[in-house]
UniProtKB/TrEMBL annotation:
The UniProt record lists the keyword RNA-binding: no
Keywords: ATP-binding, Nucleotide-binding, Transport
CDD domains (alphabetical): ABC_NrtD_SsuB_transporters
A Pfam family: ABC_tran
Residues in ABC transporter domain copies: 10-238
rRNA-binding recorded as keyword: no
Domain of life: Bacteria
GO molecular function: ATP binding; ATP hydrolysis activity
Annotated protein name in UniProt: ABC transporter ATP-binding protein
């Protein structure tokens, strides 16, 4: 049967081969993400979160199993997938506007129309009038907004977020979480977020996947209750059910630690 989810991992395993031999990073991962769904991956350091995102992005092929994007096997990097990382990787010598346009340049789709989209995204993300500035003139939160604009401008269907908020101060981080959720919801985009922050996972997601390690595997899937899911992340944290959800995630991660001897998540 054809898989109709936006993103699917089927019996996915990955072995890294290096000087010190081969190591199984993730084993037998099955995961389907529906169009418009927001899924978070949490788990101890080394459980394979970044490996899974890299496989989803087609950065390298899996050792076994498949990654499907809209039912089609992923064969390499594709403009359908956008990636946002902890570091913003803005080029210091380029203006904000030119940084936001870099994905378009790489894709060869820079044009008057697409540059108009750059300006619209800068405006949408609260950066209006800052296009002529340079990265060093902006705060960390603003720079991550530029990174988000750069990603959104290329109109990906799926967004992969690898701890994009973890270097930010708490209130800036929470503001940005709200901006990201609102933006993705409005456009019906699909997202997979990796985070160390359980409260962030609980506040932003429709579903949280708890991974265990040695090798990386799915331990548990926790569905976020509707009430929390439909609220924006700042409001979600204040809802009565939020603490219960947080405790559930916390207990599950502690169970990973006890069973698998640690990790520093
Ligand atoms: P996480 O993002 O959850 O911390 P990673 O996906 O980075 O986990 O790593 C999963 C496992 O794969 C770890 O044991 C890590 O040491 C190993 N690993 C990650 N990248 C490489 C690589 N390029 N070469 C060899 N081993 C790697
Ligand atoms: Mg990682």
């Amino acid at each position: 049967m054809k898989d109709t989810s936006a993103l699917a991992l089927q019996r996915l395993s990955h072995v890294y081969v290096g000087d010190k031999g081969a190591s199984l990073a993730v084993e037998d991962i099955d995961l389907s993400v529906a169009k418009g769904e927001f899924v978070s991956l949490v788990g101890p350091s080394g459980c394979g979160k970044t490996t899974l995102l890299s496989l989803m992005a087609g950065l390298f092929p899996p050792t076994a199993g498949k990654v499907l994007l809209g039912g089609e096997p992923v064969k390499g990097p594709t403009p359908k997938v956008g990636y946002m990382l902890q570091q913003d990787y803005l080029f210091p010598w380029r203006s904000i506007r030119d940084n936001a346009a870099i994905g378009l340049e790489i894709q060869g789709s820079k044009s008057k129309a697409s540059m108009k989209r750059v300006d619209e995204w800068l405006k949408e993300l609260g950066l209006e009038g800052l296009g002529g500035r340079f990265p060093h003139e902006l705060s960390g939160g603003m720079r991550q907004r530029v990174a988000l604009a750069r990603t959104m401008v290329t109109e990906p269907e799926v967004l992969l977020l690898d701890e994009p908020f973890s270097a930010l101060d708490l209130h800036i981080k929470m503001q940005l979480e709200d901006v990201v959720v609102e933006t993705l919801r409005k456009l019906g985009k699909t997202a997979v977020l990796v985070t160390h922050d359980l409260s962030e996972a609980a506040a932003m997601s429709d579903r949280v996947i708890v991974l265990g390690k040695n090798p990386g595997h799915i331990r548990k899937e926790i569905k976020v209750p509707d009430e929390i899911k439909s609220a924006d992340p700042i409001t979600a944290r204040k809802l009565p059910g939020f603490q219960v959800l947080f405790e559930e995630l916390w207990a599950e991660l502690n169970a990973v630690d006890r069973k698998e001897g640690g990790g520093d998540a």
